[in-house]
């Protein structure tokens, strides 16, 4: 590991200033992704700004829903009574996301910002536009079994590896930020993520120096609590990143689907929502046949690579099964 300067932030504004004033600085929270990347010489921060002790850990009802601190641990978030009762999809996704030990360390903000698990990204002997812009993409001609089906570019075919974000996007979550200029703002979580295009070294739309302060879940997303499910398909059931995952949420009233959310993981550089598949469900009875049609639509525009075509039938079955489980047909 390379030498770096350590700065302990006194508050959020100090932390943002300490990163903003030093190009190549990084925030340090749980460290469950960043420290691994530093050990592998992929991340080379010249300054680590420790925010792990800042009071951004509360989980509480607010004016418009549930406010969840960015520095609350994943384990505490998943186990919180209000999350379990009102947003069980989030609990399921967090539990699916990592081992108990990692959930105890990882923070919510860090979880949202975790970096791809493309094996070439981790192998500094290979070209990777995400790690070293302009060097090429080893996965395009290499083994790309775990890579993207949607939204990839010639520059990068990596997937976003998280689970928590898929559930949060399905639940219409927003994040609150402290920008480098000291301004606070909120934005839909879905807008944090981006496709790789020609600049895959940019994982998200978050400006340099901006700090995620918290996550807000709207009250009306609690209407999904009775009919939601997170399904993750992976090589090892115990602990692995998704080949395909899906967060589904249905609001069913009078035997009819009133609102639907389908957000897939492991298939794109960002949580991949299929509004076309959702639309197919709204106003209809929740039946297995309808769910299979929605799954077909969700993968209609998939563009497989040399080794990941298997994800299309797998993903369709995952979507249909998750919907059936959410509707309690399965
Ligand atoms: Fe790097 Fe993206 Fe290519 Fe993987 S897919 S080698 S992360 S550029």
Q: What topology does this entry show?
A:
Blueprint lengths: L4 E4 L3 H9 L4 E4 L5 H6 L7 E4 L8 E3 L3 E5 L4 H6 L1 H6 L1 H10 L2 H6 L2 H5 L25 H4 L22 H7 L3 E5 L5 E5 L22 E8 L9 E6 L10 E10 L2 E10 L6 E2 L1 H7 L6 H11 L12 H16 L4
Parallel strand pairs: 1-3, 2-3
Antiparallel strand pairs: 4-5, 5-8, 6-7, 6-8, 9-10, 10-11, 11-12
Bound molecules: iron/sulfur cluster (SF4).
The site of iron/sulfur cluster (SF4) has 14 residues, from helix 8.
Protein name: FAD-binding molybdopterin dehydrogenase
Organism: Bordetella genomosp. 1
Keywords: FAD, Flavoprotein
Structural features, described:
The chain has about 325 residues and is an alpha+beta fold. About 30% of the residues lie in helices and about 20% in strands. It contains 12 helices and 12 strands. It has helices at about 10-20, 35-40, 75-80, 80-85, 90-95, 100-105, 110, 140, 165-170, 275-280, 290-300, 310-325, and strands at about 5-10, 25-30, 45-50, 60, 65-70, 175-180, 185-190, 210-220, 230-235, 245-255, 255-265, 270-275. The strands form 3 sheets. A 5-stranded antiparallel beta sheet has the order 4-5-8-6-7, with helices on one face. It has a 4-stranded antiparallel beta sheet with strand order 9-10-11-12, with helices on both faces. The chain has a 3-stranded parallel beta sheet with strand order 1-3-2, covered by helices on one side. Strand 6 (about 175-180) and strand 7 form a beta hairpin. Helix 5 (about 90-95) packs antiparallel against helix 9 (about 165-170) and helix 11 runs antiparallel to helix 12. The longest helix has 16 residues, at about 310-325. The radius of gyration is 19 Å and the shape is globular. The chain starts with a strand and ends with a helix. The model has no long low-confidence stretch (mean pLDDT about 95). Bound molecules: iron/sulfur cluster. The site of iron/sulfur cluster has 14 residues, from helix 8.
